[in-house]
Amino acid sequence: MQTADPFLFQLFFIFVWAKLFGEVFERLHLPAVLGEILAGMLVGPYGARLVVPDEAIYSIAQIGAIFLLFTVGLETQPKDLLSVGRTSLYVALAGVALPFICGFGYMALRHNPIHEAAFVAAAMVATSVGIAARVLGDMRVLHTRPARIILGAAVFDDVLGMILLGVVIGVISNSSTQWVQLTITSLEAIGFAVVMLFYAPRVVRRIEPGLERMSTQNAPLIIAIVICLGLSYAAVKIGMAAIIGAFFAGLAFAEYSPRWNLRPRAMAINEFLAPFFFFSMGARLNLAVFDRRLIVSAIIVSALAFFSKLIGCGLPVLHSGWKTALKVGVGMVPRGEVGLIVALVGLQMNIVSPSAYALVIFMTGTTTLVAPPLMKLIFREDAPPEEEFIERRRVW
Amino acid sequence: MQTADPFLFQLFFIFVWAKLFGEVFERLHLPAVLGEILAGMLVGPYGARLVVPDEAIYSIAQIGAIFLLFTVGLETQPKDLLSVGRTSLYVALAGVALPFICGFGYMALRHNPIHEAAFVAAAMVATSVGIAARVLGDMRVLHTRPARIILGAAVFDDVLGMILLGVVIGVISNSSTQWVQLTITSLEAIGFAVVMLFYAPRVVRRIEPGLERMSTQNAPLIIAIVICLGLSYAAVKIGMAAIIGAFFAGLAFAEYSPRWNLRPRAMAINEFLAPFFFFSMGARLNLAVFDRRLIVSAIIVSALAFFSKLIGCGLPVLHSGWKTALKVGVGMVPRGEVGLIVALVGLQMNIVSPSAYALVIFMTGTTTLVAPPLMKLIFREDAPPEEEFIERRRVW
Hints:
Two copies of one chain form a homodimer. The first copy, chain A, has 396 residues and is mainly α. Chain A is built from 17 helices and no strands. Chain A has helices at 5-27, 32-43, 55-75, 78-83, 85-109, 114-123, 129-138, 145-174, 179-213, 219-237, 242-253, 257-260, 262-283, 292-314, 322-331, 337-348, 354-379. At the A-B interface, helix 1, helix 3, helix 10 and helix 13 of A face helix 1, helix 3, helix 10 and helix 13 of B.
């Protein structure tokens, strides 16, 4: 195994650097994931070049992205949608449409290619429920109506974001601008999502009795991994992204996740693989692209991402008062791993340029950093008097 | 991610084939791992060529081997050694020495290179405690003295096997046959093992309070992974195998494993990675090497592996009667993943030829298949009358 030297070296040091930066960020009450990305930027190939990931690491990062989205799906409990269903759906819909339109419009105005504009816009859509849930949980206001609307909307948001990504990739890979073709492709993506949403959980329910008769140990986890990898592969086969399949695979198992104890075990796999993904994320970011023009654009894109989400998500609940609208709007602002993965998919497909990729990472960072302090401010009135801030928990 | 097609394809199909064969083997009451290896032989590059793993898969298989040995270490509870300590130690020592001598002698007589002979002999040493524990547990005779001696000896056996592997690799990589150098290298390997055995758990104990103050979520798992990867890398750096470091890392955390709930989470990572390891194991086995001469050799090596273990482990307990000696001897016969990994390390270092690699896999298969029925026969007298065979549990 001495030939394995460089690989083991990278494996060890990437994990250590990512976790070291993650720990520092946690202590500063910042999202750990931003720390892991920063580690890739600073010690990776465009930084100090202490660790330069090779293909094998990028392969592991790719599996990391698949398991990340699988876990996101697994945590998307359909029952969360029922409590404040309709309101959350409207919030999610407007909160997906407005950022997409703003992002697409700005990128097109900036004379970026249409395909790239669509991709960046798709990356601006996905809300990270983890950030909001953490802040709300720490403040003990998870039971309030705005909080429940946020959590429900974030779930719809994930599903809508995945459908949107499917449509964008489908349209781009057909490289046709005819409306008929565009409509067919969009319907395909939506069809895949609908089948996954309604049919896949039923398949899981059907195989459930068989699972318990299987001889293989940990059969539920094994079958979940098989379906996760299988749907990822299927998604790529029909011209979408692997993560879309992984997300819907997680969703299909969400109902049985507590019973089969899937989440902690998927999380353990994640815990090992995800740092390689976030590190590679940063390692692919060439800091040299940040000239003055790009910095201005990055600030504009971040502002657009912030306000379009705030307004898009706030409007549908404005009838409940501007305070509720503000709370829901701000709570939906943080973007997360889904947006990052969308940008990476674009980069790998050579549709997103390194500078547009940098825009997305910058936008994700700023929205994630800005929203939590604002949320603390506006949710303060709802917090119980004997508030004990239980800090020091993981963010994403 | 469309460029990822072949990788995702391999990822999905290798996992599915490995688990499919594993399930069939389980249903036939055979070790699942042999099924996973067979999958690699039959559908891999030397078989039907349905899936041909590329470098990225072999990298994942390598991480699989590291986590496999980490889990073996994690399950090696030092307290298991205390109950029947001295007897188990003697059983393990003689059970390591005799197979090594027999294996080395035969391979040398067969005019294989000395280095290769040493490697094959080292692969003949390691007992798989999983097989024996499963059979004994199913028969409800785990409480008997022979059973406790077997389990204790298997633990010593793992440690001794790792030290032996370290010495063999150390000696080979120095490529010197001078006795002085050989002694120094052996002492280095033993020194590494001693430091790991006695110092590493103390380090873990020392960092324990700090761990609970860390901000990173799942800090114990993260630190365990860091130390596992770090010691694997360190072991390679000083000229040993990565798995030796991983094994001792597991051993260092064994004491705290229940408290930090490490085992189920390491197992979940294993559950995903190990099939790639066992499949690759089979995929590297060129069935064409099995000519008549090699088949004869394979049968001789298997017989040597069987009887040398039986006699080596039986002799130290002969004073307790030949029945006890037989029980302990047969219980120590099955070889397992450790021997397989040793063979693979040799193959990767170009020290073990494809035909010697085939010998080791054949030997592992036969000892694993032959021992359980024999154990059932000779342990029958100890089984409680109302024996209910709880079959259908995972073997290794």
